[in-house]
Amino acid sequence: MADTIHATVRDNYGALARGRAGAENAGLSRIAAAFGYSPEDLATVPAEANLGVSCGNPVALASLQPGETVLDLGSGGGLDVFLAAERVGPQGRAIGIDMTADMIALARANAERRQSRNVEFIEAPIESMPLADASIDCVISNCVLNLVPDKDAAYREILRVLKPGGRLAVSDIALTRPLPDAIRASVTAWVGCVAGALTVEENRAALERAGFTEIVIADAGVDLNVYKEAGQNARSEPAQPASCCAGGDKPSGALHAEMAETFRAIDINSYAASVQIFALRPAPAGELL
Hints:
By secondary structure, the protein is of the alpha/beta class. It has helices spanning 2-19, 26-34, 39-43, 58-61, 79-88, 101-114, 151-161, 181-184, 187-191, 200-210, 226-236, 254-262, and strands at 69-73, 93-98, 119-123, 136-142, 162-175, 213-219, 272-280.
């Protein structure tokens, strides 16, 4: 089951990366604005970095400090990595992890466009990251942990790479009641960050099992139906041509259009919420954070 989910997510998000070919997209910009990205945020990054699959702005929540090392899980086109890199400054480091080769290629190309020197993108699954123990000050993520089939493995791995006293600051989707069977069984709904989401209570329990403390999970109060609006907008905008050599099998906007169609008959807000998740890796007794 986990391998199937990984393959499905990789295929769909790979197609999204291949289709993101530079043009500004009003629908994607509306999603970013709805989830807390300012025009100034978006102006500092390449247009290709905004993929329209956010459910919050974790960089705004993370209280990043100059000189810190920050890790973004499921970094996509690099949007949050680039914003984090600005916060930690030239003495800091911003690392993006993504299991999709096309996303890593897109993010690295965006880094070249920005001439970013304190960023790095690594192709790897969240459940098994090639990073040293206790090497990260802050882990962020944006609507990605709900895509991971084994949440316990992901949270254990996050705890492992965090320094003692390090923090987790995540924007994600949490279920507030069971989804309709048709949505729960939908591959598009899983890829669209809903069918694989946990409840708030399940997230808290998983974090506690991993060893996190000081856990706070807060409803961000955002209208999730913006995904439907953006998907409908994507249908009307010209599709970018898929690459003949990279396996391009979907036009730009296809994933958003499929999400809009899947959720068309329901009010997503009645089943799920955008949440902000904060937690700490505890430091040994007597050790300063």
